[in-house]
């Protein structure tokens, strides 16, 4: 018997589509859709990283974190996150001269929590309102934001716009007790697009305006640090995910272009290969490369011939000028390599672990010279997690 | 020049979206896999932001209203 299979596919597709429309049958929300999640997710993760250089260890951070997402009704979703960061070790006073070299260094704890409430509307639109608060020994941040998403009727294109605000207080534990203020306004506009059954992409434009006290108070106290009281940041983030049927694997890639009016320009590329294996295992190697230019007021570790370290050359003629010796604002390239392993267990449990190595070097910068005279900066980053879906 | 490049990129993307054959609901099985999400793991994405914020000069691009930290 010869079966005529022409025109069968759409009919089969329509039946499948109808079946998928039944509640609970859709395996998840396909990308670029705006559909309320119908499952609760609870996640616990523990992050540990340590920064170090040839001359000594820098900061160590250990962070247990909790995240919950739960639908309250069919169209209201609630999310809450909490994290405690325990920070210890040595931070550079200037360039690579570490605070911990002659003492016990820095100890700080940071407690942060955030709540997001999202309302889903029938016209494929969602409105998410987020509030966040964090407190440290010397820093307090109160932040909030609104993000609106809207999908086209075919759910293949999603538009996102959002705006946020963060009001921060900085009260350093050195020098005369004082409280300094810092404000950030940020905005995002983006589009996500399903291109094929195996391809989805996203393009986000991001802008942030910071004003107020942007100096590092410790570097200002122990070294020389005086930054402009305004910073305008712009980022373009492009992401592309492709599913390989033959390999049963997903390639996630991203590119970010960043520039600010401190003259930091950065280009960052990431790639992750999520390989599905038998028995619920997923193995995900990841690579990241970033290259950035220095802020215009960053000075190299060459000091004033009269004053010596940490004073930049010519400091006496312009003591109120802008200066920083912060490695983060120098010119460098950075590479991260890592591996994540996760396993889905019975009953909606997922356990995972991830290890990464990061290295930052002046001569890994592309498109220009790196900042001379800094030691290679390295970090080991580890995380373990457990997730439950129900 | 950068602005011009951006505008061209957006125009090409928009034109590309218009001419794409539509992906139908029953073709979205792979797209619905958790691995195909842009940030499949919420806490992992937050950890990455936090880690790189403490080591590099660039940040932002994925969301708004995150809140600041001392992060020395």
What does this structure look like?
The complex is a heterodimer of chains A (390) and B (72). In chain A, 5% of the residues lie in helices and 57% in strands. Chain A is mainly β and 390 residues long. Chain A has a 16-stranded antiparallel beta barrel. In chain A, strands 4-5 form a two-stranded antiparallel ribbon. By secondary structure, chain B is mainly alpha-helical. Chain B has a domain of 38 residues. Chain B is flat, with a radius of gyration of 18 Å. The chains are: A mainly beta (390), B mainly alpha (72). Chains A and B meet through helix 1, strand 1, strand 2, strand 3 and strand 6 of A and helix 1 and helix 2 of B.
Task: Tell me the layout of helices and strands.
The complex is a heterodimer of chains A (390) and B (72).
Chain A (H helix, E strand, L loop, with lengths): L7 H14 L19 E13 L2 E16 L4 E14 L2 E3 L2 E2 L7 E16 L3 E11 L3 E13 L5 E14 L9 E17 L2 E14 L4 H6 L7 E15 L4 E12 L4 E12 L4 E12 L39 E13 L4 E13 L15 E13 L1
Antiparallel strand pairs in A: 1-2, 1-18, 2-3, 3-6, 4-5, 6-7, 7-8, 8-9, 9-10, 10-11, 11-12, 12-13, 13-14, 14-15, 15-16, 16-17, 17-18
Chain B lengths: L1 H18 L22 H12 L19
- Secondary structure tally, helices of chain A: 2
Q: State the helicity of chain B in percent bands.
A: 40-55%
Shape of chain A: globular
Rg of chain B, Cα atoms, Å: 18 Å
Strand runs of chain A, count: 18
Mean of the pLDDT scores of chain B? 83
- Quaternary state, please? heterodimer
């Amino acid at each position: 018997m010869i079966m005529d299979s022409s025109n069968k596919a759409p009919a089969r597709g329509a039946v499948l589509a109808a079946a998928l429309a039944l509640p609970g049958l859709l395996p998840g929300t396909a990308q670029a859709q705006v559909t309320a999640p119908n499952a609760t997710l609870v996640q616990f993760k523990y992050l540990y990283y340590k920064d170090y250089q040839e001359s000594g260890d820098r900061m160590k951070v250990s962070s247990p974190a909790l995240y919950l997402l739960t639908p309250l009704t069919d169209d209201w979703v609630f999310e809450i996150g909490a994290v405690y960061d325990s920070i210890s070790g040595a931070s550079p006073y200037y360039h690579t001269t570490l605070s911990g070299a002659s003492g016990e260094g820095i100890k700080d704890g940071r407690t942060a929590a955030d709540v997001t409430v999202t309302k889903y509307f029938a016209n494929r639109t969602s409105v998410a309102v987020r509030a966040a608060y964090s407190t440290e020994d010397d820093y307090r941040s109160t932040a909030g934001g609104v993000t609106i998403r809207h999908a086209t009727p075919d759910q293949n294109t999603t538009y996102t716009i959002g705006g946020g605000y963060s009001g921060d207080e900085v009260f350093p534990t050195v020098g005369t007790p004082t409280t300094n203020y810092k404000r950030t306004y940020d905005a995002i506009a983006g589009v996500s697009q399903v291109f094929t059954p195996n391809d989805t992409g996203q393009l986000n434009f991001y802008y942030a305006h910071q004003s107020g006290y942007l100096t590092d108070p410790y570097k200002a106290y122990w070294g020389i640090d005086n930054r402009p009281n305004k910073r305008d940041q712009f980022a373009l983030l492009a992401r592309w995910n492709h599913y390989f049927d033959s390999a049963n694997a997903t390639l996630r890639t991203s590119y970010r272009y960043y520039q600010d009016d401190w003259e930091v320009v950065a280009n960052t590329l990431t790639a992750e290969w999520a390989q599905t294996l038998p028995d619920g295992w997923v193995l995900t190697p990841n690579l990241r490369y970033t290259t950035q230019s220095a802020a215009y007021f960053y000075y190299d570790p060459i000091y004033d011939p009269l004053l010596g370290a940490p004073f930049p050359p010519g400091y006496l003629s312009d003591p109120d000028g802008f200066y920083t010796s912060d490695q983060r604002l120098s010119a460098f390239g950075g590479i991260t390599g890592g591996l994540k392993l996760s396993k889905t267990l019975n009953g909606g449990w997922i356990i995972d672990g991830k290890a990464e190595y990061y290295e930052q070097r002046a001569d890994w910068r592309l498109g220009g010279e790196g900042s001379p005279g800094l030691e290679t900066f390295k970090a080991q980053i580890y995380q373990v997690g457990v997730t439950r879906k129900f | 020049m950068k602005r011009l490049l951006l505008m061209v990129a957006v125009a090409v993307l928009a034109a590309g979206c218009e001419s794409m054959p539509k992906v139908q609901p029953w073709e979205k099985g792979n797209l619905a896999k958790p691995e195909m999400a842009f940030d499949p793991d919420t806490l992992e994405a937050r950890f990455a932001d936090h880690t790189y914020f403490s080591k590099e000069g660039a940040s932002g691009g994925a969301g708004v209203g995150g809140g600041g930290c001392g992060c020395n």
